TrEMBL record:
Annotated segments matching region Disordered: 209-254, 281-354
Pfam entry (one): CHAP
Coiled coil: 33-124
SUPFAM superfamilies: Cysteine proteinases
Identification of the protein by name: Glucan-binding protein B
Domain Peptidase C51: 338-464
Basic and acidic residues: compositionally biased ranges: 229-247
UniProt xrefs under InterPro entries: CHAP_dom (IPR007921), Papain-like_cys_pep_sf (IPR038765)
Signal sequence segment: 1-27
Comp. bias regions, Low complexity: 213-228, 281-330
Source species of the chain: Bifidobacterium animalis subsp. lactis (strain AD011)
Keywords of the record: Coiled coil, Signal
Amino acid sequence: MASSLASVLCIGALAVPMSTYTPQAYADTYSDLVNAQNSHAQSKQREAALREQLAGVNSDLADKIVELDDLNNNKIPAAQAKVQQANSDAAAAKSEADAAAERLKAAEKDKADLEAKIKQTGEDYDDAHAAVAQSARESMHGSDTSDVMSVMTGSKDTKDFIKSMQSRDALARNEANAASDAAVDLNTSMNRADRLKAIEKRVEQCKNDADQKSAAAQSAATQAQQEKSSLDKLRAAGESTRADLENQKSSLTTQAAQQAAQTVMLQSEIDAKNQQWAAEQAAAAAQVQEPEPQGTVEAPAAAAPQPSVPQQTQTPSQPAQTQRPSTPSQPSTPPTPVVTRPSTGGQGTSNGDYGNAYAAGQCTWWAYERRKQMGIGTPSYLGNGGQWWSTAPSYGLRVDHSPQVGAALSFLPGQEGASSPWGHVAVVEQVNGNSILISESNVAGLYTITYRTLYNPGRFWYVH
C-alpha cells in the first residue's frame, strides 16, 4: 500500500530538521587559556634549560638543536592532535553524507514505484478505496457477513460497509497527521497525482540534503589531508635537521652539550621509527582485509626478529640491581633504539620480563610493580627511568606521546624535576583530557608512593 511510502521518504529529515554537517567548535574556557599559558611557559623554561646546556656551542648549531627539540615536543604533537581531530570530523561527515544518500535513494525508489503504478492503472486510481475493498473481500465473507457488518458499522450491505470503513480510516489518518506532517503528504487519502507531487518534493529535499552533506564530507576530508600534509612536512623537517646534527655533533666539546644533542636526536628518531611501525601495521591490516581471488586471506608480513634473551645471572629471590653510572656528572648515553613489532597486540610484553630486577623502592621498581598489578608485562632491564622511552622499543614496546592508563611515563633528565643524571619514571593512573594523574615512588623517599596531576600530557614520552 502507498502508506508504506512514509516509512522511507526522508522521514528522519522531517521529524528532525535537516542540517549541514560542520565540525564542532569549542569555545576557549578559562582553564583552556590557563593550560595554554602554562604550556607556553613550560616550553620557554625547557628552551632556557636546553640553551644553558648548550652554552659555548656555535649559535647556528645550538639553534638547530633547539629547533629539533621544539619539533619533537611542541609542533609535531600539536600537529598530531589536529590530524586526529580532522580525521574524526571527516569520518562523522562521511557517515552523515552516506545516510543522506540512502534517504535519497529510498525516496527515488518510491517515486519510481508510484510512477509504475500510475502507468498501469492511472493517476486517479483510488488506492484507499481499493485497499479497504480488498480487506473486505479477504476478511468479511460467509453467512455471517451481514451480521458482522451490522454489528461493526451498522451497514446494510458491502458497499455501505466499505464507505463506513473508509470514513473510519480517514479519521485515523487525520489523527496521525496531527502528529506528523509527513503523513499529510504521503497518506493514501491523496490521489496518486498529488502523492507523486509530494514525493517529488521530498526527493528534491533529500537531494539538497545529500548534496550539502556530501560537500561537507569532501571539505572535512580535504581539511584532514591538509593537516596530514602539515604533519608530514614537520616530520620531514625533523628528519633533515637530525641529519644535519649527526654531521655536526662531533663539534660539541662539552659533556652537557653532547648529552643534550643526543637526547634530542633520539627523540626524533623514536618518533620516526614509531611512524614506520604504524605504517607497517596498517599495511598488514589492509592485507588481511583484502581476500585473495580464490577466497584465501593473505597473511600479514612476518614480525621482525625479537631481541635475544639476556642471561639470568641471579636467582629469582635475589633480583639484579640496575647499574647506575659511576659518577652522576657523566651519565651513560642511552643506546639507539631499534623498533621491532610488538609481541602482543596491546600494552606490555612478556619479552624480556624476568621479574622485578630494579632497585627496590626506586621509581623503576614501582613502575614495574604497578604495571604488573594492572596485568601489564614490563621488561626487567630497561635501565634508569629516563632511559625507558629509548630502550623499550628494542623489546617490542610502543613508545609515543599518547597517554594511556597503565603506560609508563619516562621523564627526560631534568623534566618536571626529574634527576639530571637518571631521569624518572611513573605510571599513568588516569587520563582526563588535558591532564593525567600519575603514581610514582621515591619522590618523597624510598617505597613512598605519591600522586600528582600533570598538564599538557602530549609533551611526555609514554611506554605502552
